[in-house]
Amino acid sequence: xxxxxxxxxxxxxxxxxxxxxxxxxxxxxxxxxxxxxxxxxxxxxxxxxxxxxxxxxxxxxxxxxxxxxxxxxxxxxxxxxxxxxxxxxxxxxxxxxxxxxxxxxxxxxxxxxxxxxxxxxxxxxxxxxxxxxxx
Length: 135
Fold this sequence. Notes:
Elements: H1 2-14, H2 16-24, H3 42-67, H4 83-94, H5 97-106, H6 112-127
Helix pairs in contact: 1-2, 1-3, 2-3, 3-4, 3-6
């Protein structure tokens, strides 16, 4: 899991245009990312692919956390360390309108853990202001 998260960081370092696009569009409305005009922008596809990757990682983190306990066993792994910190981090990332657009329009492609997390926290996440310097 950690190596995949680090690969995501490496992807941004090697492709700063993705980070730039995400930051510059942090204050867009969700509908902006569902407008056909964005379909002509190559950077939109790169950014959306990155967001899909990150959402899949979040789904895996939440899924692992839902199946773990305080004591490890063959069938039940140890609890995910600092899950509350992960949940806070995920909520911050989901404030971005591209993430929200995907979750509001394509959530069926993700696992139950992420879908449940989104439904449970959606109102709180959507009520928070987006910071373009946060990405």
